[in-house]
């Protein structure tokens, strides 16, 4: 993937103009949805350190880097669809994003559907937890 390629998050922008700066540590997402999209791209690109650093700080000690890396590598990520967002804007402190991430695993197409809760701390968004729909 080159910088001019479309970003895997589905925004339609090029990777370097979209999630690339977040994964490189050059910028931080300004909204919960942008963070969720960049975390999807981290799975696509197997950027496990980014997934850990964007996890709520108190949850980072329990982060299973090896298991996450295995899951990211074993799946071919085929697309992301954001279904709903609630709050999570630049001025908010919390927000939720309902999404579907499609993947191919072992010859079968699968969908990971999740309503994610995000929280902001010291001006930075973090993934907090999955919620029941």
Keywords:
4 strands; alpha+beta; 4 helices; globular; four-stranded antiparallel β-sheet; 133 residues
Write a concise synopsis of the structure shown.
By secondary structure, the protein is of the alpha+beta class.
Structural overview:
By secondary structure, the chain is of the alpha+beta class. It has helices spanning 20-23, 32-44, 48-53, 65-74; strands spanning 76-87, 94-105, 108-121, 124-131. The N and C termini lie far apart (34 Å). The model has no long low-confidence stretch (mean pLDDT 95).
Task: Itemize the secondary structure elements and their pairings.
Elements: H1 20-23, H2 32-44, H3 48-53, H4 65-74, E1 76-87, E2 94-105, E3 108-121, E4 124-131
Antiparallel strand pairs: 1-2, 2-3, 3-4
Elements, N to C (H/E): HHHHEEEE
β-strand number: 4
* Multimeric status of the protein: single chain
Which stretches of 5+ consecutive residues score pLDDT under 50? none
Strand content: 25-35%
Q: Mean pLDDT, nearest integer?
A: 95
Strand order of the largest sheet: 1-2-3-4
Distance between the termini: 34 Å
- Measured as a percent range, the helix fraction is 10-25%
The largest sheet, given as strand count, sense and whether it forms a barrel, is: 4 strands, antiparallel
Derived from helix and strand composition plus strand pairing, the structural class reads alpha+beta
Number of helices: 4
Backbone CA Rg: 14 Å
Based on CA inertia axes, which overall geometry fits?
A: globular
């Amino acid at each position: 993937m080159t910088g001019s390629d479309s970003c895997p998050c589905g925004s339609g922008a090029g990777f370097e103009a979209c999630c690339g700066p977040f994964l490189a540590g050059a910028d931080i997402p300004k909204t919960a949805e942008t963070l969720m999209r960049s975390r999807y791209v981290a799975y696509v690109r197997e950027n496990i350190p980014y997934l850990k650093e964007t996890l709520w700080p108190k949850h980072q000690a329990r982060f299973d880097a090896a298991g996450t890396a295995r899951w990211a590598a074993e799946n071919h990520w085929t697309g992301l669809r954001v279904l709903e967002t609630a709050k999570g804007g630049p001025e908010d402190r919390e927000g939720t994003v309902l999404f579907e991430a499609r993947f191919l695993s072992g010859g079968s197409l699968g969908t990971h559907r999740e309503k994610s809760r995000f929280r902001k701390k010291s001006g930075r968004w973090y993934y907090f937890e999955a919620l029941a729909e």
